[in-house]
Every structure is written in C-alpha cells, then in structure tokens.
Amino acid sequence: MKSPRWTLRAAAAAGVILAVGWPASIAAAHAALKSSNPKDGAVLSAAPAELRLTFNEKLQDDFTTVRLRGL
C-alpha cells in the first residue's frame, strides 16, 4: 500500500504540470498572421482591390472576424 505522503506528492506534481502546461497549450491554439498584402502599416492613396491575409494554419469560420479600418 502506498503511503499518504507519496499520494500527496503525486497530486502536487500533477497540479503543477496542469498549472504550467494547460495555459501554454491554450495560447498555442491561436492562428498567427504570417503575412498580408498590402503589408502591415502600408499607407495607400486609394482602397486596395484585394486584401490578402496569410495565416500559419486554417482559420475556423465560426470564430474568425476581419475588420478593415480607415482613418
């Protein structure tokens, strides 16, 4: 039979692993913008005919919004 002290240590170790590993896996779940055309920060004299955004992974349609702002 395992001692209560061993069980407590195992539970504490599992808690630390979850506390450290869980947020990192959630944060890594987001797509990142790799490139855009026009480039980020470009100053244009007229609206572009096309806006192209390239991400590091496929986006989920239900959770994706793009907002184009002008001054």
Concise summary:
The chain has one helix and two strands. The protein is of the alpha+beta class. It has one domain (4-63).
Task: Record keyword descriptors for this entry.
two-stranded antiparallel sheet; rod-shaped; alpha+beta; 71 residues
The average pLDDT is 78
Helix and strand string, N-terminal first?
Answer: HEE
State the total count of DSSP E strands. Answer: 2
pLDDT below 50 for ≥5 consecutive residues: which ranges?
none
Question: What oligomeric assembly is this protein in?
Answer: single chain
Question: What spatial form do the alpha-carbon principal axes imply?
Answer: rod-shaped
Q: Provide the spatial order of strands within the biggest beta sheet.
A: 1-2
Secondary-structure class: alpha+beta
Compute the number of helices.
Answer: 1
Task: State the major sheet.
Answer: 2 strands, antiparallel
How far from one another are the termini?
71 Å
Number of domains: 1
| Rg, Cα atoms, Å | 23 Å
